[in-house]
Amino acid sequence: MLRTRSSIRVKQWLVTITLSLLAGMTAQAEGFGSKPVTIMVGFPAGGSNDLVARIISGPLGEALGTSVIVENKSGAAGTIAGAAVVRSNPDGHTVLLSTLSPIIVSPQVMKNPSYITTRDLIGVNMVGTTAETIAIGAALPNVKTFADLLALAKTREVTLSSSGSGSFPHLAIELLIEASGGKFVHVPYKGATPAIADTIAGHVDGTLMDTPPIVAMVQDGRLRALAVTSDKPMQALATVPTVGESLQGYLALNWVGMFVPLKTPPEVIKQLNDALAKTLARPDVIAQLNKIAVAPNMLATPAAFQSFVAEEYAKWGAVIKKAKIEQTD
Q1: 250 in any annotated domain
Q2: Considering 217, 245, 273, which residue would you say is the last residue of a domain?
Q3: 193 and 167 in contact (C-beta within 8 Å)?
Q4: Is 10 in the same domain as 120?
Q5: Which of 25-39, 56-70, 266-280 shows the lowest per-residue confidence on average (mean pLDDT)?
Q6: Are 122 and 232 part of one and the same domain?
């Protein structure tokens, strides 16, 4: 029954998108690119969204023939930036660059969300995929592998920090608890920075976090990465095994995408998509994204990405309901 209702919601959203795009055919895209494009990011500098936005902003501006500015509007689990984009003029000059949480999770767990993805936003395309990383700090000096961590969680509670209640790392921790049967305890923080800092200091046993902001800390030894949640190792952490190698079937893949207000004309979406394709084809951009553990990955068309987002919305919505996740901050 849940799958049927989810399928109906997905179909309704796709019909809404189609009608909005057809209506927007009469809108003029004239003047697009005549002023700067602003990439809205829902988190402070140094997080996954911000790192990706700053890597692509210069090349994207070159492809569009205008300047591209990154603006951080942090707060409310990343949704302040999303709300600003929803309220903006749908002319392509204000876009949202976001990982999965503010797009898929927050609108479904917040009591009074400032926007509903399936009603207010439309995807331009995916930018890349990444994974979560399970890492430990000073609290567990004798844990050397993910198998060791699983064994420890059978004997006592193991605390894992995340970037917030209702975030994608939170969902990934809930999946870990369900899949392993271990005594993992979710400890939410207001953002990745304090969650990682307390893990390094040993105030919590470990963290399950977006990989981009912790790569440097793993590489310099402040954190020890035990496993990644993707189906294969990532280039930036090539020697770190996957969770699935010890816990069969576990997979929690994150992604980064570009979004605009729903009524943005299709010709503008096409221009943004074409510029994004040129950007992600550049060897320097590919190298920089791989360095922070984001694999460049566009889908065939904006429509394909919109269908993907609808499927993700239904999939993770089911997980949220089963785990009874609610966002308190």
Answers
A1: no
A2: 245
A3: no
A4: yes
A5: 25-39
A6: no
**Cα(6)–Cα(16) distance, integer angstroms:** 15
d(Cα 12, Cα 17) in Å, to the nearest integer?
9
Between 302-323 and 168-180, two packed helices, what is the crossing angle to 10 degrees?
A: 60
Residue 279 half-sphere exposure toward CB, CA atoms < 13 A: 31
User: What phi and psi values does residue 301 have, to the nearest 5 degrees?
Assistant: -150, 165
Q: pLDDT per residue over 132-170, tens digit each?
A: 999 999 999 999 999 999 999 999 999 999 988 888 899
Following DSSP, what letter does each residue of 63-123 receive, concatenated? Answer: HHTS-EEEEE---GGGHHHHHHHHHS-SSSSEEEEEEHIIIIIHHHH-SS-S--HHHHEEE
- The phi and psi torsions of 141 (rounded to 5 degrees) equal -65, -20
pTM over 0.90: no
| C-beta separation of 161 from 209 below 8 A | yes
Q: What is the DSSP string of 302-326?
A: HHHHHHHHHHHHHHHHHHHHHHT--
Distance of CA 83 to the CA centre of its chain: 16
Q: What is the mean pLDDT of residues 308-314?
A: 95
Residue 328 lies in a domain: no
In a domain, 290, yes or no: yes
Q: Are residues 228 and 185 part of one domain?
A: yes
| Residue 36, domain extent | 2-130+255-323
299 and 262 in a common domain: yes
The reply to whether 329 falls in a domain is no
- The structural domain count of the chain equals 2
Helix, strand, coil % in the chain, rounded to nearest 5: 50, 20, 35
Do both 202 and 288 map to the same domain?
no
CATH of the domain at 259: 3.40.190.150
The pair of structure tokens assigned to 291 is 């360095």
Residue 230 clears pLDDT 70, i.e. is over it: yes
Give dist(CA 137, CA 143) in Å, integer.
10
